[in-house]
Amino acid sequence: EAKRNGQGMIRQFNQALSQSEQERQALLKDLRDAIVHEKLSLVYQPQFSVLDGGLTGCEVLVRWQCPKRGFIGPDVFIPLAERNNLISGITAFVVRQANKELSESGFLGKSIKRVSVNISAQEFNSEKLMADLLTLLHQSPQLYPYLQLEITETAALSDLSASVRLLTRLREQGLKFSIDDFGTGYSSLAMLKNLPIDEIKIDRDFVNDLLEQPRVRAIVEAVTTMARVLDISVVAEGVETQAQLDQIKLCGCHEVQGYLTARPMKIDQLAEFVHVQWSSVSVQPSVRQ
Ligand code: C2E
Ligand code: MG
Ligand code: MG
Ligand code: MG
Q1: Residue 276 per-residue DSSP state
Q2: How far is the C-alpha of 253 from the C-alpha of 251, rounded, in Å?
Q3: Is the C-beta atom of 263 inside 6 A of ligand 1?
Q4: Is the pTM higher than 0.80?
Q5: CA 170/CA 191 separation, integer angstroms
Q6: pLDDT digits (tens, 9 = 90+) for 40-51
């Protein structure tokens, strides 16, 4: 009896496994289809100077609204794409579409002087994918002068000396680099010491803990002090409240990106935002109070 139960459980377990495997395959097929037929879309999240509230740039974020499944976040489909060699297709779409939308908008190089695009670890660590990416970037000449590539600490640290060489070479070609989710890796100081970069983005988790934890405040202060000496700009990401903004300002961060100042938005909203609202948005606590 016990044996039969056991076998039944194993059968159920196998069925569940193969169901989730089938589901995964189906999701992958839909993603592949969305990439091939360009059913992804883009949103842009503005970034502002902490000092004067001026618009400094924006981050491009990819979106997938699946007709069958509804909204699927990049946190879900980017890792899936990475595991299945689809990431370069997504980056190609993001770069081409951002080049098209932003150059048509007319404010590239005017209100918006810096456009950040996320590059996955898998891409950054592959010579072939980076060569492909570079070709693609040169095919987007309107966007190219304003481009900044966001990579993560983990991506840059897997082979530090190779990263230094790559970053040096690409920066000579006019590209800028940002370290995304700064502080979440294990060797943030090694990064600051070695890597030729233009910007770091203090991870949202740090921004969250800033108010309650004096230790975190001390770390962020130290990082911004070092970054200033190294001529690296510091962006605080995921800033949602005025209290957080006040703190990141006290810590000496240069720029802010988060729901408090602006949510990610489609290009036509961005156009409106740039033209109508941006001068009225102030990130200065004294003005908001
Ligand atoms: P990330 O690069 O760190 O992007 C910031 C994420 O924080 C975005 O989530 C953004 O919508 C969200 N965010 C911005 N402000 C706030 C805030 O005040 N509060 C909160 N709670 N969240 C905020 P999103 O768009 O879901 O993207 C998640 C991650 O997916 C990104 O993290 C990035 O790693 C990846 N990703 C997004 N677009 C792309 C892309 O085009 N290519 C690649 N390779 N990865 C991408
Ligand atoms: Mg990013
Ligand atoms: Mg980030
Ligand atoms: Mg993040």
Answers
A1: I
A2: 6
A3: no
A4: yes
A5: 17
A6: 999 999 999 998
